[in-house]
Amino acid sequence: MSGITYVRGDATVPSVKGVKIVAHVCNDMGGWGKGFVLAVSRRWPEPEAAYRAWHRGRADNDFGLGAVRLVQVERYVWVANMIGQHGTRTGSKGAPVRYEAIDTALARLAGHARELGASVHMPRIGCGLAGGTWTRVEPLITERLTGQGIPVTVYDHGN
User: Fold this and answer.
1) Which of 3, 100, 122, 144 is the most exposed place for a label (fewest CB within 10 A)?
2) What is the mean pLDDT of residues 37-46?
3) What is the distance between the alpha carbons of residues 81 and 71, in angstroms, rounded to a whole number?
4) For the residues of 17-53, what is the DSSP string, one character each?
5) Amino acid 2: pLDDT
6) Cα–Cα distance between 96 and 119 in angstroms, integer?
7) Span between the terminal Cα atoms of the chain, in Å
8) Those residues with Cβ within 8 angstroms of residue 62's Cβ, 6 or more apart along the chain or in another chain
């Protein structure tokens, strides 16, 4: 039992009361423009602007695999940009997903969620363009978030 709630819908429109964090995985190359980030950008401009500025200033900040930045987009809604993939394409080193980085980012996300008293909402992170498998990601979410009492809802888009 994972403790994760699964629903059909759009993770950028969490329909629960209280503070919410919409979490997603970004790459470590500064690229933003495919996958779930398009839905994020359609709804709020701030997460993309924050990610690009974070990447631009990477020589002087924590931008890199496993890092997390929260961006407040509404009074009770934050977006968590989590760096969990290396590059953007599958190549000789395999898919871009980095499970260890996602694990680290989720542990950091848990701290933010506890601080804010927030629930976490996400697509199947790391399993789209990053090329990961849910059987590897789900246990990380269970250990780092739901196992710590943080409510998590995973959204499957479409019918």
Assistant:
1) 100
2) 97
3) 8
4) SS-EEEEEEEESS---SSTHHHHHHHH-SHHHHHHHH
5) 67
6) 27
7) 24
8) none
Using alpha carbons, select from 35, 33, 47, 40 the residue that is nearest to residue 12: 40
Q: Which two tokens stand for residue 30?
A: 């500064």
Q: For residue 72, give the DSSP letter.
A: E
- 50 vs 46, 57, 79, 94, CA distance in Å? 6, 11, 10, 28
Q: What is the mean pLDDT of residues 70-90?
A: 96
Name the residue type at position 95. A
Closest Cα partner for 12 from 71, 84, 63, 53? 71
Q: What is the pLDDT of residue 55?
A: 98
Between CA 46 and CA 37 the distance in angstroms is 12
